[in-house]
Amino acid sequence: MNVIGHGVDLVEIAELRRWIEDPRDPLLPRCFVKVELDEIGDGADRIDRLAGRFAAKEAVLKALGTGFGAGVAFTDVVIFRAPGAPPEVRLSGGAAKAAEALGITAWRLSISHAGGLAMASALALG
């Protein structure tokens, strides 16, 4: 397999908390699907986990070379992690079309948290 794209993103957790709590333009329905929110749950680390998933979505979009917009939505990228397993990338809509056009067949994703920050790195493989 060859590396087709690589994306990295860093999110300030406190800033993401402000975006989520802003009643004028709630971030959650624009960026996350139900399966992601269900998997993240309501625990004390919820905002940290959301920040990691947000960074992962941004990293995937950077690896695709698309960013969001122009037919690609944040909800086209779903980040899921089964218990005891590494995080997974699932694409739909415009993101899936972009990945197919590039020949992307697999993803490697890493998410980390430290010092009030969440970071993600995404490798697009094909």
TrEMBL record:
Catalytic activity: apo-[ACP] + CoA = holo-[ACP] + adenosine 3',5'-bisphosphate + H(+)
Binding annotation for Mg(2+): D9, E58
Keyword ATP-binding among record annotations: no
Domain 4'-phosphopantetheinyl transferase residue range list: 7-100
InterPro entries reported in the protein's UniProt record: 4-PPantetheinyl_Trfase_dom (IPR008278), 4-PPantetheinyl_Trfase_dom_sf (IPR037143), ACPS (IPR002582), Ppantetheine-prot_Trfase_dom (IPR004568)
Chief place of localization: cytoplasm
Cofactor dependency: Mg(2+)
Subcellular location as annotated: Cytoplasm
Domain of life: Bacteria
GO MF, any single term: holo-[acyl-carrier-protein] synthase activity
Class of the enzyme per the UniProt entry, highest EC level: transferase
Keywords: Cytoplasm, Fatty acid biosynthesis, Fatty acid metabolism, Lipid biosynthesis, Lipid metabolism, Magnesium, Metal-binding, Transferase
Record-listed E.C. numbers: 2.7.8.7
Keyword set includes Transferase: yes
Job description of the protein: Transfers the 4'-phosphopantetheine moiety from coenzyme A to a Ser of acyl-carrier-protein.
Family membership: Belongs to the P-Pant transferase superfamily. AcpS family.
Protein name: Holo-[acyl-carrier-protein] synthase
Provenance organism: Bradyrhizobium campsiandrae
